[in-house]
UniProtKB/TrEMBL annotation:
Protein name: DUF2274 domain-containing protein
Short name of one Pfam family: DUF2274
Originating species: Paracoccus aestuarii
InterPro entries, alphabetized: DUF2274
Top-level division of the source organism's lineage: Bacteria
Length: 81
């Protein structure tokens, strides 16, 4: 069994985002989705739905970012307009 950084993908309220991905990254996302489905015994998620959890995981585990955010409290409270 493979230990992936992502767990099961929850069905969340969809939000439209426009992103251009290199073809190889799209293929990698599709492959990741297939492996994730096999490891979690769930249906294959839309590879696009992996982007947000991957970004969340990346940010949550980036020690440099966490340290910078702690030392600069003003940047941690950025809100959407």
């Amino acid at each position: 069994m493979v230990k992936l950084k992502l767990g099961p993908i929850t069905d969340d309220k969809p939000v439209k985002v426009a992103v251009e991905l290199p073809a190889q990254l799209q293929r990698d996302l599709a492959t990741y989705a297939e492996i994730l489905a096999r490891e979690t015994a769930q249906p294959i998620p839309d590879p696009v739905k992996l982007i947000v959890p991957m970004l969340e995981r990346f940010i949550a585990t980036d020690r440099g970012f966490a340290k910078a955010r702690r030392t600069s409290p003003a940047t941690s409270r950025v809100t959407n307009p």
